[in-house]
Amino acid sequence: MTGENAVRHVQHLAQQIRQEGRKYEYDCIIGVSGGVDSTYVAYRVKTLGLRPLAVHLDNGWNSELAVRNIQHVLDKLHIDLYTHVIDWDEFRDLQLAFLKASTPDAEVPTDHAIAALLSRIARRHGVRYVLSGVNVRTESHLPRAWSTGHLDWKYIRGVHRRFGTKKLSTFPRQNLYQMAWNYGRIKWIDILNYLDYSKRDAMNTLTQELGWKYYGGKHYESIYTRFYQGYYLPEKFGFDKRKSHLSSLICAGEITREQAMRELETTTYPSDLQRQDCEYVMKKFGLSPAEFEAIMTAPPKRFDDYPSYSKDPTFRLMRYVYRRLRTLRSARGAPTIVQTELAASM
């Protein structure tokens, strides 16, 4: 949605959020990572007169620049911050399990924890709205085979039971029934889809008005994500996520195909930094060079090689009902609010 319809919809939505949250300390929840998308959400919700609580998941892999971006921007915008520091022993075990599972889904544990945490904090504060930085202009072309199962606790639990060694006592999670319970009580809104979002313009605004600093690549505010997208996926699977992100930007009219092709002729990120990241990952995980090599050379697996909700009749029924409701809503001409938790799994 763009143009005047988008403006009216956002204004109506902001009024609705303010009205429903008037009795509470905060009227919406936003996730922040220090990256451009989530930071721009923080900037825009303040211009809409909302009272957000920013939530950050510290999974042990934050870059120093990302931490500075979060602190500096939120201080300038006068937004309160809640940081959840994940239990490193549990999380290390889970991340290692996914590497040993040999699927291209090594970031699934973080993505699942973020969604579960945002829902938990929303319930704790009586907030009905979570405003996310997910957007079709920069994230609309991701092949399913490259990354699947972010919200699928059965898949995550299955991988960990097979390859993990520790009990996940405190890891933020939500199963199928918890997701369904949250669905009717918490509205996830991908607000950038209603703001005629331009990543280039957003970066300029954040830099000039808030002193935000760029970190070198999409989601590279995390050291592990930089390693995962820039080294692990290309080297082990031959997947270059830049193709996905650049394709989205081409369709959004922000770059040309020729510009994208020129970028793809370069390395994902500098080779010396790749070596540093590999050494850092091995040290942080406690892996020997031989163990790391075994992970990198193990035969690739797929999401479908492990248990998941996608094979569960209850899930298939919920997916059918969810999609049917979205179709009926669109047919009536009503703006479709993307419920990220279910949409990402379906």
Question: Could you outline the blueprint of secondary structure elements for this entry?
Answer:
Blueprint: H1 3-20, E1 28-31, H2 36-47, E2 52-58, H3 64-77, E3 80-85, H4 88-101, H5 108-124, E4 129-132, H6 153-163, H7 176-183, E5 187-190, H8 199-210, H9 223-237, H10 241-251, H11 257-264, H12 271-285, H13 289-297, H14 313-331, H15 340-343
Parallel strand pairs: 1-2, 1-4, 2-3, 4-5
Helix pairs in contact: 2-3, 2-8, 4-6, 9-12
Short key terms for the protein model shown above:
346 residues; alpha/beta; Rossmann fold; five-stranded parallel sheet; 54% helix; 7% strand
Sum this structure up briefly.
The protein is of the alpha/beta class and 346 residues long.
How would you explain this protein's 3D organization?
This protein has a single domain (3-343), classed as Rossmann fold (3-Layer(aba) Sandwich). Strand 1 (28-31), helix 2 and strand 2 (52-58) form a beta-alpha-beta unit. It is of the alpha/beta class and 346 residues long. It is 54% helix and 7% strand. The chain has a five-stranded parallel beta sheet with strand order 3-2-1-4-5, with helices on both faces. Helix 2 (36-47) crosses helix 8, helix 4 (88-101) packs across helix 6 and helix 9 (223-237) crosses helix 12. It has helices spanning 3-20, 36-47, 64-77, 88-101, 108-124, 153-163, 176-183, 199-210, 223-237, 241-251, 257-264, 271-285, 289-297, 313-331, 340-343; strands at 28-31, 52-58, 80-85, 129-132, 187-190.
